[in-house]
Amino acid sequence: MKTLVWILAFPILISALATAQSAPDHTMQKDEPREDRMFLPRDAFWGWGEFNLAPPHNEIDPNLCAGNAGQFGGVNAPCSLFARYMLSGMLEVRPFGRGQLRRFMVFGAPAFLFGKTIPKTLYTWSPDAIGIEHSWGVGIFIAKGFEFRVTQHFLFDRLGARNTNLGPADLGNNGPWGRYVTVGVHKSFGTRRW
């Protein structure tokens, strides 16, 4: 039940943060220079949220069940972890507004999967929770849109009754990419129209 509350609270949190970031600052005059606060400046949060729907015969495959899962019980096969819906997002937090620490940031990118489908066997619109694929990391702004980032990607976390072995078609919790850590350079470019 707690997981369901978090799943529902995540999009609301993203919406609230987006509203707070886009609210105009009425305390500053146009000619007055802007001085950011040291902790949590007004532009500390940036992110996006997205909801996706996969049509029948084109399900999201988190690689938790074998593609031939229908051969192990037909429409009643226990391994039905092919998603119809995906709720995903990204949240970047730049907690410092002044000094060299203003270049530091922390980010997270969860993806929640829902559905109950078995390829070529069972196609439903069920919103049953499958699990969460998430990653987080830290970054440091270098210059001219370049950031140095370290990212940790975790194993897939199954939710509810699906957090057990689901028979011979069950491939485990590695998900599409398994667990890994990357060190890389991120480049941002362009400006948004709105």
Tell me the structural class.
mainly beta
The N- and C-terminal alpha carbons lie at a distance of: 38 Å
- What best-fitting shape do the alpha-carbon axes yield? elongated
Any idea what the radius of gyration is?
A: 21 Å
What does it look like?
Strands 1, 2, 3, 4, 5, 6 and 7 form a 7-stranded antiparallel beta sheet that branches. The protein is mainly beta. 11% of the residues lie in helices and 32% in strands. β4 (129-143) and β5 (146-153) form a beta hairpin.
Concise overview:
The protein is mainly beta. It has one helix at 2-22; strands at 45-53, 85-93, 104-114, 129-143, 146-153, 157-158, 180-187. The chain starts with a helix and ends in a 7-residue tail after the last strand.
Key terms:
single chain, 194 residues, mainly beta, 7-stranded antiparallel sheet, 1 helix
Layout of helices and strands:
Elements: H1 2-22, E1 45-53, E2 85-93, E3 104-114, E4 129-143, E5 146-153, E6 157-158, E7 180-187
Antiparallel strand pairs: 1-2, 2-3, 3-4, 4-5, 4-6, 5-7
